Amino acid sequence: MAHMAAHKTIPLAALAISGVFAAGPPALAGDDECLGGNPLSQEGILELAPGVDIQSVLLDYAEYEFEVLDAIASRGIYLVSRNALMSDSTFEQIFLGDPDIDHSELNFEAGDPGPGTQSIFLFTAPGMFQHQPIVTSLGLEDAQASATGEGVKIAVIDSGVDPTHGQIAGRLAPGAIAFTAHPGDAEYDPANYIDTCNANDDDNDALIDEGVGHGTAVAALALLVAPDARVLPIKVLNDEGKTTAFRVAKAIIYAIDQRAQVINLSLSSCAGLRIIERAVDEAEELGIIIVAAAGNSGNHADDFPEFPAAMNKVAGVVATDTAGHVAPFSNYGDNYFLAAPGIDIISAIPTDSCGPALPGSEFGEADGTSFAAPLVAGLAALLIEQEKVLRWNDFRDCIRDTAINIEGINPGFDQPVEEGLIDVAAAIAWPGPCHADFSDDLTLDFTDITMFLQAFAIGDDEADMAEPRGQHDFSDVIKFLQFFAGGCP
Predict the structure, then answer these.
(1) What is the pTM of this model?
(2) Catalytic residue flag (residue 266)
């Protein structure tokens, strides 16, 4: 246990996050309360058919007085206001059969469903961060002798970061941004990605700035595993720790456009929206690895799944101790892909004294699936640097081959996780797939060259091997030839 110089009590109710700053009572299992269970009033989402202009749609439906609140214009997705008298079902039904509207759905709050246990920041000495138990249990020293994440960009979609913190300063990628308000709102400031408070109880829950510090802790943990990676902060959680599904989707799309190679989402909702699923699909097509926290309600995913962690093509992360015992607060089940340590995790917190949510220290000890997820994001960055992982299937195969089976030590949990507990050292020692083996016979010959050229000609994702992803050009041919010359591992 780290030395506790002082502490301040705060609740788990940092609602849009899947972590708690440590050592409070564990979350109780079986809670069916889930943030995102009810749609946000007077907001709806429209996905337009290609080429359709939003102004023409507003004109066609002028009687409903829709107004654009926010937009992902590059993808034809718009958040609109609804008349207070319009029911949820009416909004979802009035566009049926309209060829200009590809899809409509309601907007939901995103976050950890609770329950609201009390938690505390525990002061820890700065040296403890680099020497905490997970460094040994995950085999980070051995792994980093082979890879450090150099050249890899990790998007951290969270509460922002403290860019002055010693564990983060100089390690940010250009393009940090904030999506914490609608354009036009008084507090709208896309440049304000700083993880900080405003000293107000904005959500009237008798708590002040309970979400502050979360993103800083998450970013530092990703960098603990992949120290030479670069973090792209995308702030979607406000100082109360809240966001919406629309903003999460907007952040994922932004990360894609900024050419992030890994996306960390230490947040969740019980609403599995199509706009988020579509963003995940687009990321997967480009070889981006998405990691998400499973949530802290102690529920089995078959009963109360949380998203995006329970989505296909997302590495949903269950929290355990260093030995692999599932944390009592963690959601679990084989809808979630893998597990990582999430108990007594030491990480960075903002250095400025900032209201009652922070104790004014540089490091704190924390519990939560939020803090398990970035350890997996860091691992993905190491594997991408090694060029063992070019796409989701590669990452999935690596985890299947190297994760530690934890079913036997968790007899009280029905299927605790799809695969097992990450072993970073084993994953880095994994020989990797044979990227040039298009015929899947573990032999490289002219057949593989022919099949690559055919895939390249039709723009198949399998032939998209080099950065920038999403376009087929001569760099993909060069990369294939390099893999071909290297042979199969």
Answers:
(1) 0.92
(2) no
